[in-house]
Amino acid sequence: MKVKDKKRPGVAPTLVSVVVVLVIWQIAALIVGQDIILVAPVQVVTTLIALIPQASFWATVGASLQRIVVGFLLAFFLGSFAAWLASVNRWLGAFMSTTMRLIRSIPVVSFIILLLIWANSTYLSLWVSFLMVVPVVFSNAEEGFANRDIKLVQMSQVFGFSAGQRWWAITVPTLMPYLIAATRVGFGLAWKAGISAEVIGMPRGSIGERLYQAKIYLSTADLFAWTAVIVALSYLCEKLALWGLRGVQTGLGRYAS
Amino acid sequence: MIQFRNVSFAYTGVPVVDDLTFECADGGVVWLAGDNGTGKSTTVHLALRLLNPDRGQIEAPPVISAVFQEDRLCEHLTAVANIRLGLGHKATNREILAELERVGLAEIEARRPVGQLSGGQRRRVALVRALLRPAGLTCLDEPYTGIDEASLDQVIAYTQERITGRSVILVCHDTDIAERFNPYVVRI
Question: Which of A104, B92, B143, B150 would staple B67 via disulfide (CB 3.0–4.6 Å)?
C-alpha cells in the first residue's frame, strides 16, 4: 500500500493555487487599470512569448545563469569542504564558524559595493551568490558532520574500512539530507542576491541589466516577464540540483552491491 | 589468541572493569557472564581496541570482527554490500548470498537495503559479516537477539562452524545458548 506524503501538497492543489493567484492578479490589474502600476498576467505572458524567440534573450539568460550557478557550486563545494575541515580540527572549526557568522551578518549590499570597488561588475553576481550561499552550506554540512553516527564509525574501525569506504558508506549518507536542505534554501538565495547584484552593478547582457532597463522605461510588463524568468530559472536549478543529489543518494544504495 | 592481563577501566572515574585477567586460545570461546551493567560490553570494546585500558595489558590479533549489541549496519546499503565492506577481501555476490541463505536470509531480502529488513534479518546480516571476515578474534555481543526460535538452531550451528580456529568473546544472557559453545566462563 502506498502511503501519501502529507508534507507535499501534490500537483492538483499546486495548480489550483497558481490559477487562484493568477485570477486575483488579473482582477487586481483590471481594478487598478494602469499597466505602469500593475500589468495584467495576460500581458506578461504576451511579453514573455515575444521575448523567448529572441537570440538576445537566451544570451542574457545564459550569462546570468552561468555566473549564478558557478557561484552556487563554488559555495556548495567550498562550504562543504570548510565544514569538513571544521569537523576534523576544533581550532579550524572555531575560525570557520566565526568567519561564516561574519559573512552571514554582513548586508548583501555592502558586499556588492565592496566588490564593485575592488573589481568590475562582470562577475559580481557570481561572487555575491557565493557569499550568500557559502554560510548556509557550511552550517548545514557542519551539522551533518557532527551528526555522524559514532557507533558506525567504531564499526568501520573494527572492520578495517579504508578512508574512502568510510566516506562513502557512512559520512556521505549522513551528510546528504543536510546538503539537500542547503540546496533548497541556497539556490533561491543565490538567484535573489545574484540578480540584485546585477541590478546594481549592471554587467552588460545580464538579466539585472534588463530589469534596470524595465525600470528606466517604466515597462512593468518587461519587469514582470523577467521576474517570471528568474523564478522559473531558480526553480529549475533547484530541481536539477536536488535530482543530482538524490541520484548520488540512490547510487550510494547500490554501492558495493 | 586474546589475552587480558590485570586490565582496569573507568568511565569518568567510575570503575567499570577492575583488574580483569583471562585468555582465550585460538579456537576457544570465552563467555563473559554477569548481570546488566557489570562491564561486559566495555570489556568487548576494550578487546576490539575501541577503548584503551587505564591499567593492564591486552594482546589481541590484528584482524578482528564483531557483532555489536546494536546491529551497526549501513542502512542504505544492501545486506550483500554491508558484508562485502566488512570482509577485507574480495568475494563474489554468489558466495555472500550462499552464506546468507545458510542463516535463512533469501536472495530477495539480501538484495534490499538493510534499513528495510526486520530486526532478526538484520541480526543475521551482522552475524554473517562478523563470521565471514577472516579474523583472529570475533566478539559476539548478544548475537541472537531478535532471531526467532524456529531458526535459532540453524544460526547457532552456522556460528559454531564459522568460528573454528579463531578466539571468540561471547556475551549472552541465555545460559543454554552460551553453554552450547562449551565456553570458558569469565564472571564479571
Answer: B143
